[in-house]
């Protein structure tokens, strides 16, 4: 069996995230986003590439949406309402709550304001959301008999989650967008150490190393403070959700501490509405918000009030939050057009702006500059520009840390820029020795997965599993080098976990048996190599008369005494007619022609001690034999 | 009712060994009812015990009943414990019931066959099929008294158990074990260490947590240095540390680095407790290479660490640990979502910044940002760490930090403000601009929180003292503000003015000696704040001193040239410097300043006393030396300072005090003032100096010379001011000391002071005539003016020769019996410190003032080493007087073989004695028949 990973969007680019993964026959679509940079058919993922595209409902086991950003959810109403998917859709509770707001807002901007062709209507959004099943963090959802999914906290935005999916023994993790360092209002991604075949991770900042966020915060606050002190106005274009709350919380705290009275405004009802959700969904926010929640809801900003359009050109300093974030249009562009020519004002830009937006132009330009909006409109930009890379995405170190922590067998990179992804792939492969891929859109990656075989276990094996049975091994420590001698240390192993034999018989289920049973199952006998030697003992002539009187048992005792002196550490057994040391057994040979006799005995006074031993005790046995042979000399003297 | 229940229980139990729920309820009812009679309880107990011995009964229920009984009726505990003990020893007892029975045993009561020291029982509990039993055994592993080797093996084995909680318990057991046993087998320690490292990659959070703990957890009682020089057994705590300690010095650093990097890996775990544990562990590591420390501040791999690898594990598959794993460890820790992690991260920095100044320089940036943290605990810890860095002189404040740093002064929380002030007080500000914003910060603090006034004034005073030059220029800029307003009113209630005044008056005590540049009227303005100032500076000086100081400084312009005045300024100067030292000690966070440093400071400062002595400011000298003495004592209590140096310094200060007094005496024409006073002073001085010479082993030549010179001063003073009495004696002594000086001179190059050279000349002129000096008294007196006090250099360790004497069971009410005329034995317990067996020790037993009997102590007879020797000695006292009671004073004295003065005791010492302890009183009383 294999895992097939078809990248429909966000392959070697940022935008319209959509990955279809087939695990052991189950097909899951992760995210269903739209590309904000295109207005043609490239805006949506090419759903026709999904196998059996005539009937998506039967082709896909489920759709999983990681968070409410449009590049992760934008195509969902289209897919369900226009392309006819009616299977299960999973997302977290906050995503389910906020997604319709985002979609509706987008639809309004695109259709009502810009007069673009409508891809889906308000009703479509409502209908689509009806199909959604909301899941909680770490809640295991059994999609069908074989498929399990589970959400983990991802940071990034409110309700963002990483999704774990498991079919049989093959398991993957789709991270969506995530953040490994906590914000003020959201925590850091959190996950268990899982056994994974594949991790599909975002790689927005595949090569970027970000400084401590504290430095950015400090600089941002300094810039804003300086501007309002000099009677300027501050425009903070943001997405309605997430960044707005983050910056607002930061400013509110700072205002409090510095005792500033300058007003902070929220422009749109949307943001205020979103704030309500934040207030309710405390469980999805950062530890700090949770900690202070008992005394004060951190989203009840003390210094923030809602904005009225008439205030745009009001005198005096203030701070304004306006959407959209990259000044691509909407209210933030409107305000920007009016404020940009004044030197006292300040515009803070987010760290990442899509190509084509005003934000992107501002980022690359030097001030003062002129920006052409369209053929007729041109803006003189004289205001201060502060670039603020508060990004809720993790950086290269964060990606490496997560991959290192999870140590999956394979990694697929999505949601990033191609050259950077290539560099990250190199790092993952060289530093962590994990296979890594970064397919382009509409490409498929196939990887092998863990195969799952059901096997029975014998009672004896189960029994042996219950009792501890550990061993220590300590390889020879003759070579004594100080460093890098990993083979010198004591190593523990427990047979319970390690040892069992998988048997496959014809027409029967595979079964695991214990070592002892194995022979029985096979119906064979245990064979072992044994050595034998018939050792002559010469009895001295002078004592010939006495020797006849010396019974074999007396001789045996004599030998026994000698041996117990020579091997004080061993357990010697003197069983009347035999001598035993470990596997060595010696007894008097009465046969005339013993097979193991090598000497041609001419001596009349000789008895033979027939000895046998196993391979393991070979060295010992030869020592014993040499003692027995020397015994004769001792007697003679 | 009771009876019926009891008989029912007995009946049903007899019929059916499995206790039914009904009879179980009845038993519980009987046990918990406080009115159940004793006899009934006893019979219930006996019934239960009887059934316990039956192999067919339900032991679980019986044991539960018994434990309930034992809980409710402690007096039956003994009987129950005995029954449980018997039950354990029964061969038929099933293993799963053993833990329950074992928990019933009375730990205080030791039975002849203690099941907890039974190894086979322990092993059978461990190796049984029942996981629960195994878990119980491992949890209670500390109760078992089994051979450590067995314990270690078993625990190490169970780290492979398939059950996570067994693995966790086994690791915890290993942590416990590493605290208390001796392990010298390196491969075994390595085995444990790498097993723990392996479990860092366990899927179970709790196991990983335990593994971090096992790598490095409990605080180790010894430092690595102590261990490597080690006569102390391997009592370190954690396996990683154990492994570090087991290595030779060369590889120690290597293993310590390996452990550090391995722990760094864990700070990126997604479990909060593991991260916190990792930082706690990191803070306990004693040595780390600088490049690794620097790596912990940088996100990117540094060149120095790029190629380095350590033994350890990077992921579950990769068994080589690159040093770059440590990248940004502290950045992550300080950015953590949980204050439970941020705090230990700050704390870990505290110990690690001591290791490297460069690392500390980088860490400052991170720590300053932590002052913006929303958790008070974290802010406080960050300040504490900054303070710690300042104390180790590793705090370099940058201009970009000031905003945050001084922002802490206006924090809502009083603790934070106070911690911030403490840190600021120790910070050296590089630029005038920084000092200005620091002052502004403090003034803002004062305005917002007037309750902090005393502390703020104190800090301003301290800062002013450190930055005299800057303050002068600030004051010059703002002196307008400090002037009285037009209507002639002084508005010093204004916080800003008051603060600036405090700053201004601190300048004269600054070490930069810019005394005259502050306009003197400012000092007189400051007098109006006297009450508030003296409250703030209570640790520095009292109100009178402050007033005197202010009025002195305000007179500056008037009397700048008078010689007398210079002395007085100097006097104040010293007074205040003394306090500068004393203030160090008031500092709660400051315990780590090394006492030896303080000692050295004091010894250096002593030189400054000389001009005061010359001026005859006896009181100042006495007070200062007293303060210093106290200071030294305080410091040495806190740090385990070698006692020798301390006692030496204390004695030295005493001598200086005496010198000051004696000098003042001589200035005031002692002939008329009564000679007795000077006599006493000089002989005290002589005694003390001799003590310094003989009771400290390890004095350098310079040190000796210094003492001898002081002796010469003593004798010269004695000769020139005491007239003719003891003249011959003193001349002899003077000559003797001079000859010793000469001897020292011959031994090696020593530089003699003018004073000594002059004395040598005088002596040479005299030749050997015994009374030659009598004609040279004026020369001698003049030579004294050549003397000046110098710094006494102390090198290395001084050993203080000391004795302790104890008389057992003897006091006024418990006298020893004696029969008059017959000798009596005095049982003494003697402890000697640092006395070599070659020295001649005597017991001096004196009866009254006059009669002293000496008993020789032959040290060869008593065991022990030179460092410490403890023994009991029965000292005979022969001449018991004919009285009913009498009192003896016993002390231990050492003969100074180099002192040539002969004593006339026939069986006593031949040379002068130095007493090594105070005289101990022994009471004797006539035996009653």
Secondary-structure blueprint:
The complex is a heterodimer of chains A (637) and B (929).
Chain A: E1 2-9, E2 18-23, E3 26-30, H1 56-59, E4 62-64, H2 70-73, H3 76-82, E5 89-92, H4 93-113, H5 122-130, E6 132-135, E7 140-142, E8 147-153, E9 161-167, E10 170-174, E11 198-202, H6 213-229, E12 233-237, H7 243-258, E13 264-266, H8 269-280, H9 287-292, E14 304-306, E15 318-322, H10 330-339, E16 346-350, H11 358-364, E17 369-372, E18 378-381, E19 384-388, H12 396-406, E20 410-414, H13 418-432, E21 435-437, E22 443-448, E23 456-457, H14 459-466, E24 470-473, E25 491-494, H15 495-498, E26 501-503, E27 511-513, H16 515-522, E28 530-538, H17 544-549, H18 552-566, E29 572-575, E30 578-581, E31 584-588, E32 606-614, H19 618-636
Parallel strand pairs in A: 3-4, 4-5, 5-6, 10-11, 11-20, 12-15, 12-16, 13-14, 13-15, 16-19, 20-21, 23-27
Antiparallel strand pairs in A: 1-2, 1-22, 2-3, 7-8, 8-9, 9-10, 17-18, 24-25, 26-27, 28-32, 29-30, 30-31, 31-32
Helix pairs in contact in A: 3-5, 4-5, 12-13, 18-19
Chain B: H1 2-15, H2 21-32, H3 38-52, H4 59-72, H5 77-89, H6 98-104, H7 119-127, H8 131-139, H9 148-158, H10 164-180, H11 186-199, H12 205-215, H13 224-228, H14 239-246, H15 249-266, H16 272-282, H17 290-295, H18 303-306, E1 309-311, E2 320-322, H19 329-334, H20 339-352, H21 357-370, H22 376-391, H23 402-407, H24 414-426, H25 432-448, H26 453-466, H27 468-482, H28 495-505, H29 520-527, H30 530-536, H31 543-554, H32 563-585, H33 595-615, H34 618-638, H35 643-667, H36 670-673, H37 675-694, E3 696-697, H38 701-721, H39 727-747, H40 754-766, H41 777-786, E4 799-800, E5 802-807, E6 816-818, E7 824-833, E8 841-847, E9 851-857, E10 868-877, E11 885-895, E12 913-915, E13 920-926
Helix pairs in contact in B: 1-2, 1-3, 2-4, 3-4, 5-6, 7-8, 8-10, 9-10, 10-12, 11-12, 11-14, 12-16, 14-15, 15-16, 16-20, 20-22, 21-22, 22-24, 24-26, 25-28, 26-28, 26-30, 27-28, 28-29, 29-31, 32-33, 32-34, 33-34, 33-35, 34-35, 35-37, 37-38, 38-39, 38-41, 40-41
């Amino acid at each position: 069996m294999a895992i097939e990973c078809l990248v429909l969007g966000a392959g070697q680019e940022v935008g319209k995230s959509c990955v279809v993964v087939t695990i052991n026959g189950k097909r899951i679509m992760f995210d269903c986003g739209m590309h904000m940079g295109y207005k043609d058919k490239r805006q949506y993922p090419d759903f026709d590439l999904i196998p059996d595209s005539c009937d998506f409902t039967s082709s896909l086991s489920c759709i999983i949406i990681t968070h409410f950003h449009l590049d992760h959810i934008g195509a969902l109403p289209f897919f369900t309402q226009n392309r006819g998917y009616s299977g299960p859709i999973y997302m977290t509770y906050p995503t389910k709550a906020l997604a319709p707001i985002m979609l509706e807002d987008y639809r309004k901007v695109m259709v009502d304001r810009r007069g673009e062709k409508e891809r889906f209507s308000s009703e479509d959004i409502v209908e689509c959301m009806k199909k959604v099943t909301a899941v909680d963090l770490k809640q295991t959802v059994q999609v069908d008999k074989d498929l399990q999914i589970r959400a983990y906290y991802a940071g990034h935005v409110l309700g963002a989650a990483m999704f774990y999916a498991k079919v049989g023994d093959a398991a993957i993790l789709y991270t969506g967008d995530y953040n490994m360092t906590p914000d003020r209002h959201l925590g850091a991604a959190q996950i268990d150490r899982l056994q994974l075949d594949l991790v599909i991770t975002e790689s927005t900042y595949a090569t970027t190393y970000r400084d401590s966020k504290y430095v950015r915060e400090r600089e941002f606050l300094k810039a804003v403070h300086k501007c309002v002190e000099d009677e300027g106005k501050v425009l903070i274009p943001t997405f309605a959700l997430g960044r707005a709350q983050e910056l607002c919380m930061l400013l509110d705290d700072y205002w409090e501490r510095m005792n500033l009275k300058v007003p902070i405004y929220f422009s749109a009802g949307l943001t205020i509405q979103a704030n309500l959700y934040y207030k309710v969904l405390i469980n999805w926010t950062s530890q700090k918000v949770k900690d202070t929640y008992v005394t004060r809801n951190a989203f009840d900003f003390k210094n923030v009030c809602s904005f009225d359009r008439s205030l745009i050109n009001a005198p005096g300093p203030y701070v304004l939050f306006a959407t959209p974030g990259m000044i691509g249009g909407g209210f933030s562009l409107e305000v920007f057009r009016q404020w940009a020519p004044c030197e006292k004002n300040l515009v803070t830009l987010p760290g990442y702006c899509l190509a084509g937006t005003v934000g992107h132009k501002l980022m690359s330009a030097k001030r003062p500059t002129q920006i052409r909006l369209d053929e007729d409109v041109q803006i003189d930009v004289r205001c201060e520009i502060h670039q603020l890379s508060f990004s809720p995405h993790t950086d290269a170190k964060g990606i490496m840390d997560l991959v290192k922590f999870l140590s999956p067998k394979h990694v697929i990179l999505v949601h990033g820029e191609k050259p950077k992804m290539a560099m990250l792939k190199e790092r993952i492969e060289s530093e962590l020795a994990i296979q890594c891929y970064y397919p382009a859109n509409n490409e498929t990656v196939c990887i092998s997965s863990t195969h799952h075989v059901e096997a029975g276990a014998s009672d004896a094996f189960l029994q042996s599993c219950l009792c501890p049975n550990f061993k220590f091994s300590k390889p020879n420590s003759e070579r004594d080098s100080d460093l890098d001698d990993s083979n010198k240390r004591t190593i523990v192993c427990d047979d319970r976990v390690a040892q069992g034999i998988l048997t496959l018989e014809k027409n029967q289920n595979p079964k695991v048996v214990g070592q002892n049973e194995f022979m029985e199952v096979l119906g064979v006998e245990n064979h072992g190599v044994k050595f034998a030697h018939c050792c002559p003992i010469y009895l001295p002539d002078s004592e010939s008369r006495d020797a006849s009187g010396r019974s074999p048992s007396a001789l045996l005792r004599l030998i026994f005494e000698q041996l117990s002196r020579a091997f004080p550490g061993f357990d010697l057994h003197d069983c009347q007619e035999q001598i035993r040391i470990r596997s060595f057994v010696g007894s008097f040979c009465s046969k005339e022609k013993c097979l193991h006799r090598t000497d041609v005995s001419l001596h009349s006074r000789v008895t033979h001690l027939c000895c046998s031993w196993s391979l393991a005790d070979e060295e010992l046995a030869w020592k014993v034999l040499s003692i027995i042979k020397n015994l004769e000399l001792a007697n003679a003297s | 009712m009771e009876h019926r229940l009891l008989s029912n229980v007995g009946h049903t139990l007899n019929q059916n060994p499995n206790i039914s729920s009904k009879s179980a309820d009845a038993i519980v009812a009987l046990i918990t009812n406080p009115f159940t009679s004793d006899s009934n309880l006893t019979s219930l107990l006996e019934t239960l015990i009887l059934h316990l011995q039956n192999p067919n009964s339900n032991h679980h229920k019986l044991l539960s009943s018994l434990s309930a009984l034992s809980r409710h009726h402690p007096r039956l505990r003994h009987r129950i414990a005995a029954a449980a003990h018997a039950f354990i020893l029964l061969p038929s007892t099933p293993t799963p019931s053993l833990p329950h029975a074992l928990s019933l045993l009375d730990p205080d009561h030791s039975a002849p066959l203690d099941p907890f020291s039974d190894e086979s029982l322990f092993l059978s509990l461990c190796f049984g099929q029942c996981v629960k039993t195994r878990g119980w055994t491992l949890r209670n592993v500390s109760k078992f008294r089994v051979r450590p080797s067995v314990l270690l093996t078993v625990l190490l084995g169970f780290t492979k158990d398939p059950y996570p909680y067994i693995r966790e318990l086994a690791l915890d057991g290993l942590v416990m074990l590493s605290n208390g046993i001796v392990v010298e087998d390196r491969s075994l320690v390595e085995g444990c260490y790498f097993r723990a490292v392996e479990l860092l990659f366990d899927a179970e959070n709790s196991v990983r947590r335990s593994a971090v703990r096992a790598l490095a957890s409990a605080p180790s009682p010894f430092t690595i240095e102590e261990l490597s020089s080690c006569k102390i057994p391997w009592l370190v705590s954690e396996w990683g540390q154990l492994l570090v300690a087991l290595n030779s010095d060369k590889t120690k650093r290597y293993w310590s680095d390996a452990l550090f990097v391995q722990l760094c890996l864990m700070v990126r775990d997604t479990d909060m407790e593991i991260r916190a544990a990792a930082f706690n562990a990191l803070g306990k590591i004693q040595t780390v290479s600088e490049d690794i420390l620097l790596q912990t501040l940088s996100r990117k791999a540094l060149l120095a660490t790029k190629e380095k690898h350590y033994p350890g594990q990077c992921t579950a598959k990769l068994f080589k640990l690159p040093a770059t794993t440590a990248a940004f460890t502290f950045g992550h820790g300080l950015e953590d979502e949980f204050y439970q992690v941020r705090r230990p991260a700050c704390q870990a920095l505290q110990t690690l910044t001591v290791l490297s100044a460069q690392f500390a320089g980088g860490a400052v940036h991170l720590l300053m940002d932590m002052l913006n943290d929303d958790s008070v605990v974290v802010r406080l810890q960050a300040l504490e760490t900054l303070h710690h860095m300042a104390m180790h002189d590793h705090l370099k404040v940058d201009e970009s930090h000031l905003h945050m740093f001084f922002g802490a002064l206006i924090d809502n929380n009083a603790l934070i403000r106070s911690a911030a002030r403490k840190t600021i007080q120790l910070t050296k500000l590089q630029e005038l601009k920084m000092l200005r914003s620091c002052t502004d910060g403090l003034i803002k603090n004062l305005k917002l929180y007037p309750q902090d006034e005393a502390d703020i004034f104190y800090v301003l005073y301290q800062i002013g003292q450190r930055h005299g030059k800057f303050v002068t220029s600030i004051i010059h800029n703002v002196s307008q503000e400090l002037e009285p307003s037009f209507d002639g009113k002084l508005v010093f209630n204004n916080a800003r003015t008051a603060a600036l005044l405090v700053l201004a008056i601190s300048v004269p005590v600054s070490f930069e000696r810019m005394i005259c540049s502050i306009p003197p009227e400012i000092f007189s303005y400051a007098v109006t704040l006297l009450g508030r100032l003296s409250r703030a500076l209570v640790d520095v000086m009292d109100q009178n001193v402050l007033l005197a100081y202010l009025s002195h400084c305000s007179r500056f312009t008037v009397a700048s040239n008078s010689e007398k005045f210079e002395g007085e300024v100097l006097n104040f100067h010293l007074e205040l410097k003394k306090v500068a030292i004393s203030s160090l000690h008031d500092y709660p966070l400051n315990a780590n300043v090394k006492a030896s440093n303080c000692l050295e400071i004091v010894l250096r400062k002593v030189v400054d006393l000389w001009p005061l002595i010359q001026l005859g400011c006896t009181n100042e000298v006495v007070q200062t030396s007293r303060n210093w003495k106290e200071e030294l004592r305080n410091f040495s209590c806190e740090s385990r300072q070698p006692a020798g140096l301390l006692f030496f310094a204390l004695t030295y200060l005493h001598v200086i005090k005496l010198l000051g007094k004696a000098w003042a005496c001589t200035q005031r024409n002692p002939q008329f003032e009564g000679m007795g006073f000077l006599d006493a002073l000089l002989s005290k001085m002589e005694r003390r100096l001799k003590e310094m010479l003989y009771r400290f082993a390890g004095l350098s030549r310079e040190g000796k010379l210094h003492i001898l010179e002081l002796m010469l001063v003593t004798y010269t003073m004695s000769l020139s001011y005491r007239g003719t009495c003891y003249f011959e004696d003193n001349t002899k002594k003077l000559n003797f000391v001079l000859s010793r000086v000469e001897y020292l001179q011959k031994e090696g190059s020593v530089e003699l002071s003018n004073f000594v050279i002059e004395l040598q000349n005088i002596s040479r002129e005299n030749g050997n005539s015994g009374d030659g000096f009598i004609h040279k008294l004026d020369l001698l007196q003049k030579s004294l003016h050549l003397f000046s006090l110098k710094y006494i250099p102390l090198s290395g360790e001084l050993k203080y020769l000391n004795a302790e004497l104890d008389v057992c069971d003897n006091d006024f009410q418990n006298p020893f019996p004696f029969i008059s005329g017959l000798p009596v034995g005095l049982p003494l317990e003697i402890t000697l410190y640092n006395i070599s067996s070659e020295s001649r020790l005597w017991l001096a037993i004196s009866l009254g003032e006059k009669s002293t009997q000496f008993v020789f102590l032959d040290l060869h007879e008593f065991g022990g080493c030179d460092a410490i020797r403890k023994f009991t000695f029965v000292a005979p006292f022969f001449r018991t007087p004919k009285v009913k009671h009498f009192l003896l004073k016993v002390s231990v004295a050492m003969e100074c073989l180099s002192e040539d003065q002969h004593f006339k005791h026939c069986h006593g010492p031949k040379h002068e004695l130095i007493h090594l302890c105070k005289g101990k009183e022994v009471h004797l009383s006539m035996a009653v028949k």
